[in-house]
Amino acid sequence: MKTLAILVLCGLAYVCISASTGASDSTVSKSDSPTDEGVFVKKDEADTLMRQKRAGTDPANLSIAQLEALREVCEANLACEHMMDTSGIIAAYTAYYGAIPY
Asked: What is residue 31's DSSP assignment?
């Protein structure tokens, strides 16, 4: 049984290897060959392929989870926590830690 499995795997490997070498002998034009193009693309071509980064989220549109994360950071600083209670989490976070990272 093991011998049969090994023979089947060897035959499959032979078919795969012969098919991949046979494809290089076929009538593939030089412009269609992927080895000529390379991995890198020009910047203007890459701009059309890649999605541009969005600007930061408006502080009024932050989710509950994002606000909670800001609150946890601000609670570690007593002055920030006091300002958070009086002025709000967004004002306190930006005053002590700078721009909101979301």
From this structure: G
Nearest-angstrom CA–CA distance, 30 and 36: 8
Structure-token match 């994360």, residue found: 69
Separation between Cα atoms, residue 52 and residue 65, nearest integer Å: 25
Spatial CB neighbours of 81, under 8 Å, sequence gap ≥ 6: 74, 75, 92
* Cβ proximity of 68 and 62 under 8 Å: no
Quickly count: other Cβ atoms within 10 Å of residue 67's Cβ. 16
Question: Tokens 């926590």 label which residue?
Answer: 81
- What pLDDT, in 10s, does the model give residues 18-49? 776 654 545 555 555 555 556 677 777 776 76
Dihedral sign (CA 71, 73, 74, 76): positive
Instruction: Give the Å distances, CA to CA, from 59 to 40, 52, 67, 85.
Output: 38, 21, 9, 17
